[in-house]
Every structure is written in structure tokens, then in C-alpha cells.
Amino acid sequence: MCGAPPAGLSLEGIDVSKETVIQGVVILDGQPVPSAYVRLLDGSGEFTAEVVSSASGQFRFFARPGDWTLRALSSKGTGEVRVHAQQGTPVETEVAISH
């Protein structure tokens, strides 16, 4: 594994040793999904934050260490993935949506 982030999302300029980063791309049938709402839910399922995926389906959150759920909502479908985040090790993930 080359360590490159999904879809080229750069960590340049971010001190990952001091941050807890959760980032990735929303996909449908292997293709990025732009303008999807990506929600960050804490370990108990409570809403914490929301961002809109970029034109290339990318998103990023700065969170606290712990267990999180990412839920993507789009006119094309929904999907979710659970991740464990820790300071100093960025989480790189894909959220696959389905119809």
C-alpha cells in the first residue's frame, strides 16, 4: 500500500500528530458522488457534524478520538460506515451509497 489518500485528498499542512482526522470519499458503483451530505455521528449515534462532499466526492472531519459512524445522504442513495479514529493516525475511508 502506497499510503496515498483516497482520490488524492492531501494532508499537506495538517499536523496529523496533533489532530484526529477522518476523511475519504463517497462512492456509488465505484464512482465519486459529489454534493452528498456526510454526517458524523458519535459512538451513541448522536449527530455531531455535517459536511457536503466536494465535486470529487471527498470529505474531511476533525474529531476527537473514538468510534464514529459516517452516514452519506444523496439523491442517489444512502450509505454508512463505522470507523475508529485516533490522534496521529488519519482514518481514510470510502462511504459506499446504494439506491
Describe the structure.
The protein has 99 residues and is mainly β. The chain has one domain (18-96): Sandwich (Immunoglobulin-like). It is 0% helix and 51% strand. It has no helices and eight strands. The chain has strands at 21-28, 31-32, 37-41, 47-52, 58-62, 66-74, 77-85, 91-96. The strands form two sheets. Strands 1, 2, 5 and 8 form a four-stranded mixed β-sheet that branches.
Layout of strands and helices, then pairs:
Elements: E1 21-28, E2 31-32, E3 37-41, E4 47-52, E5 58-62, E6 66-74, E7 77-85, E8 91-96
Parallel strand pairs: 1-8
Antiparallel strand pairs: 1-2, 1-5, 3-4, 3-6, 6-7
Q: Give the C-level CATH assignment.
A: Mainly Beta
Give the CA-based shape. globular
Low-confidence stretches: 1-7
Q: Beta fraction of the residues? A: over 45%
- Biggest beta-sheet profile: 4 strands, mixed
Number of spatially distinct domains: 1
Q: Please count the helical segments.
A: 0
Strand tally:
8
Reported by name, the CATH topology is Immunoglobulin-like
The N- and C-terminal alpha carbons lie at a distance of 31 Å
